[in-house]
Specification:
Elements lengths: L2 E10 L4 E3 H5 L6 H8 L3 E3 L7 H16 L8 E5 L10 H9 L5 E5 L5 H14 L5 E9 L9 H4 L4 E11 L8 E4 L7 E4 L4 E4 L1 H10 L1 H11 L9 E4 L4 H11 L5 E2 L3 H4 L6 H12 L7 E8 L3 E8 L2
Parallel strand pairs: 4-5, 4-6, 11-12, 11-13
Antiparallel strand pairs: 1-7, 2-3, 6-7, 8-14, 9-10, 13-14
Helix pairs in contact: 3-4, 7-9, 8-9
Length: 312
């Protein structure tokens, strides 16, 4: 085998929907204020009895079913999350237990909003190196649990959910080389810290960085895959804010691509946002089997990671 590919995807969101009007009853805000600044209309919120590993397991089960695989076919589980409350057992181990996956290696990756694309690259590397044959890659976060519901600048952003992909060996590579890195000196611009942990960010700093520094990096990810941005059928950026997604997508130059805008109905779900939005594009038929799609995550630390993948 010369590479790896995404065999199937799946996603999951809690049933409870929190609208902008609902938030207006909690903090000094309004539907117009939220939509004009971040483009979000609704978000899904998990209940107190829905831990992040449960969200992850639901999405993973759907991906497994779509791939026609059983839990025993998986030998590595990677979960990207920054909202696991317990240090041990990790979220991946709990997902494996929920799904009945025997003897798999289980690891969490905490790269916040860029977590899924980091985890996807890690899965690709593991398969290429012969360390795994089939990998469950999951992005899952329960941002409602770390939100400051008295801060109208951040609580209007967050949502809960999970997305998953099954990665397996392939004759022809379906996951392009990753381009990843970080800006550690700006790491405090996005934070989940304290006791209890709370999400906070320097919104203007993140906006300027994302819209000015990231476009050439995203274009380089396309170059590593041997493609021009105009060759892309889809672009799935971290669903942070519509005012970041739209200018960033435009500056990348993907003029023929469908741009995921799931943030409008799901909010910022951190590590879940890319697989969640990607799975929905596939489910809706907006992209087709074999289409090249750029996945590009960015956020906390300030970290970034992106690669071009072929749709399952």
């Amino acid at each position: 085998m010369n590479g790896s590919r995404i065999a199937a995807v799946g996603h999951y969101q809690p049933a409870k929907v929190l609208t902008n009007e609902d938030l207006a009853g909690l903090v000094d805000t309004s539907d117009e204020w939220i939509r004009s600044r971040v483009g979000i209309r609704t978000r899904h919120i998990a209940g107190p009895d829905e831990p992040v590993d449960e969200l992850a397991a639901h999405a993973a089960a759907k991906a497994l079913a779509a791939a026609g695989l059983s839990p025993a076919d998986i030998d590595l589980v990677l979960v990207a999350t920054s909202t696991a409350i317990d240090r041990s057992p990790n979220t991946a181990a709990r997902v494996a237990a929920r799904l009945g996956i025997p003897q798999a290696a289980t690891m969490d990756l905490n790269v916040v909003c860029a977590g899924f694309t980091h985890a996807l690259a890690t899965a690709d590397h593991a398969v290429r190196a012969g360390g795994a044959s089939r990998v469950l890659v999951i992005g899952a976060d329960k941002m409602s649990e770390v939100a400051d519901w008295s801060d109208r600048t951040t609580c209007v952003l967050v949502g809960d959910g999970a997305g998953a992909a099954v990665v397996e060996a392939a004759d022809e590579p379906g996951i392009g080389p990753v381009l990843w890195g970080s800006v550690p000196e700006m790491g405090n611009a996005v934070r989940i810290e304290g006791t209890p942990p709370r999400f906070a960010q320097e919104g203007q700093s993140v906006y300027r960085w994302a819209t000015t520094q990231l476009p050439p990096i995203a274009r380089r990810a396309c170059e590593r895959a041997g493609l021009e941005p105009a060759d892309l059928a889809g672009v799935v950026l971290h669903q942070a804010n519509l005012r970041i997604i739209e200018p960033l997508a435009e500056k990348i130059g993907a003029v023929n691509a469908v741009v995921a805008r799931d943030v409008t109905e799901s909010g910022n779900t951190s590590a879940a946002s890319i697989p969640l939005a990607f799975s929905k594009l596939i489910e809706q038929g907006a992209v087709a089997t074999g289409d090249p799609v750029l996945l590009f995550g960015f956020g906390g630390n300030l970290s970034y990671a992106g690669q071009v993948v072929r749709c399952p």
